[in-house]
Amino acid sequence: MGNYQNNTARQPLQIEGTIEAMQSKFTQIAAAENLVKWAEESQFAIEVLYKNPFLQKCDPVSIQNAIINVASVGLTLNPAYGLAYLVPEYNKAASRTECQLRISFKGLMKVAVDSGAIAFVKAEIVCESDHFEYLGPCEKPVHRMNPFADRGQTTGVYCIAKTAAGDYLTDVMSKAEIDYIKSKAKTKAVWESWYGEMAKKAIIKRASKQWPSAGQSERFAEAVNVVNQQEGNELEGQFKVVQQEVTEPLSVQYYPGENFLSNFPKWQQAIQSGKTSPEALIAKIETRGVLTDQQKQQINAVGRA
């Protein structure tokens, strides 16, 4: 394995070589579940590395470890599904930028269901204007809301799981508990940008400790382990935690598609009011992440309207 400079952009052949060196190991690990294919995942990884200059500066070994984690948890990097992402973070202790595999709450739910840990699982945020009734740990709660109205601030989150036997298991978490978990996180920027998604992931992790088959699923345990390694674990000792001092991620592009859609209305208003131009806005956004060509076209179209 060659020695690369960690803080300089690498050439395309080096990017591809770093990933291709993992083909044999990836294929061997992925063969156990046969859920992800090398030909597809290697291309998804190469594409995102080409598009994101921050990822190009990552330590090559960390890129390779992230690719192996894709094989271990069996979650595709296909951006259309939003299950897992490659994200650059600066490791202050090691003085280098590292690539991490980030598993979304959607990815964690998929692994739980696919691996047989649970038959069905759903996590939802509860807000101030919602009507919510918790009926106990073995009953589905009552949750009524208007998804098209301003629901107010978050007051909690809950998770419903259905076992293979058809029983329901419900776990709830107050905002105070969510904020406590946030305070223990290794990186705060993801929480600041995606509070609801991170809260859902937190309740799914906690609820899974009560699922009958969760402890028997190696794949689900590995997925939770990857999440805890990169994001921190509110309950020390429950899973292995890698002790590293990590600062904020260089790119807050955790859920790129949802991020773009949620921010587009305010970007549109800024352009139409004359506060900024499409070109200036695109340049500003790309200091934090990389837009797709389609997303740039949408922003430029506002300027021509």
UniProtKB/TrEMBL annotation:
Pfam families: RecT. It comes from the Bacteria. This is Recombinase RecT. It comes from Endozoicomonas gorgoniicola.
